[in-house]
Design a protein that fits this description.
The structure holds two protein chains of two kinds.
Chain A: H1 17-52, H2 54-61, H3 66-91, H4 95-125, E1 140-142, E2 145-147, H5 151-187, H6 197-221
Antiparallel strand pairs in A: 1-2
Helix pairs in contact in A: 1-2, 1-5, 1-6, 2-5, 3-4, 3-6, 4-5, 5-6
Chain B: H1 12-33, H2 40-60, H3 69-93
Helix pairs in contact in B: 1-2
The chains are: A mainly alpha, B mainly alpha.
Amino acid sequence: MEPEAHGPELVHQFSDVQQQKNAASLGMWLFLVTEIMFFGGMFCAYLIYRLEYFNAFAAGSQQLSIKMGAINTAVLIISSVTVVLAVKAAEAGKRKLLVGYLVVTVLLGLTFLVVKGFEYREKFEKHHVPGSTFSFTDKFDDNGKQYSVNSKEAELFFSLYFVMTGMHALHMIIGCGLFTVLAILAWKGHYTPAYFTPLENSGLYWHLVDIIWIYLFPLLYLISRHS
Amino acid sequence: MAQHEEHTTHSQAFYLFIGFALLVLTATTVGAAFINLGAFNPVVALLIATIKATLVVLFFMHVKGASEKLTGAVVVSGFFFLAILLSLSLADYLTRSGPMWR
């Protein structure tokens, strides 16, 4: 390896390019592990309350729009594909293709947030936002049998819904900002086949946010939907 | 340090195939939610979600084929500690007699 290389592709504390790449990837994964634990606490709270207040959680879930949730799941999956294709374009040195994929990724991220915004608006209109105006009169429909639901328990479901989807949406907003910066830098030619580590690591972040949504969708939207 | 050059990326067709598989699994999970499987509805939903997450981690996040085994160990440790958090919490709450909070 070149001991005298002085670009971002090999800074002086690493002995070769591969070692530097491995170190960057490992550091990113350590951060992602902290993210798993951060969301893990919320998933744990969700799990315990769902087991105790199942009827309220099912009734709350039946008020969410499967259509919008499924569309958003598809949007995020497609955005993950454009991210891996962007990294591949960077590796091949195709600058314009790279910028194109990054821009499409940001647009898909914004699409997700717009759909989420429409869902939140519906929650405000139905008074399903936890707080002093919260009201929940819907029943849990289980195979045609109607069970009335304690509105305090339903409020707990919607609290978890807003905290979990809200933290996820915050990560999406950060991701969109990140990929906008990457697209600008890629346009200026900062990334070459020799050095595109920021693209790879940002991609890892985007995929993790995708994975969190992959779990949020069935857990929040698909409780007891059969009849 | 002589190391073989890392080939982390797959072909474009392969990525599109994985993306397609993820979309099919999403449709499957929605469909399965409308079938009455009793206690197995959440099990099936979580199983499909885990298959999807595994596809993303292995192929999009390139954990499969990474030259550094340490990365794999860190990834597994993350999910391992999450499993400890969930299983020990449930070991407490599920074994309380009567309603959980009394």
